[in-house]
Amino acid sequence: MTTTLQRKLIKGTAVPIRGNEIDTDRIIPARFLKETTFDSMGEYLFIDARFSPDKTPKDHPLNESRFEGASIMIVGNNFGCGSSREHAPQAILRAGFNALIGESFGEIFAGNCKSVGVPAVQATKTDIESLTMTVEKTPNAEVQLNLETMQVVVTHADRGVLLTVSITMPEERRQTFLEGTWDELTLLVSNMDLIKTTAAKLPYITGYE
Fold first, then answer.
1. Which CATH number characterizes residue 43's domain?
2. 118-161: per-residue pLDDT in tens?
3. Is residue 143 in a domain?
4. 57 beta partners
């Protein structure tokens, strides 16, 4: 079995998005769902929360220069609830984010995140607040999300380790990231010979074109 898509250790700066019950319509408004590809989804991430109708920027973390280039998002409780639209994790991924750390997630949303290679891990409310405050005070700190040790470590070049917190996620989902099997389509395509060999042994498949 080919396993070339492991997501064991993710590093980068982070941006906190405060608030609970942030649903998928706020992440990516419904009017963008009619686009035929996901290519531009990153441009629409939190667009109504970030900009007025006349495109004037609002007070939002993603508009702050200190968080520019962040690749890890820290969120609150039940993030990604509401509609099951897969456009929400696509927008997050295409805006440059590689992982989410939150108190909890909408279950379908978390599964959709797994499908695009974005781990959505959980931490306690207290630890999320500590992470948020640490990153807000030191936005250039590096956040390391380790799916082997199940810890998040925040470090600073001059000050060393600033914070360490424990994280959780469903074990089955975690294993797909460790093994590189989170992308089922790529896994199938990369093992086409094995699929053909197995199919040849099945009496209800052989003999058909």
1. 3.20.19.10
2. 999 999 999 999 999 999 999 999 999 999 999 999 999 999 99
3. yes
4. 51
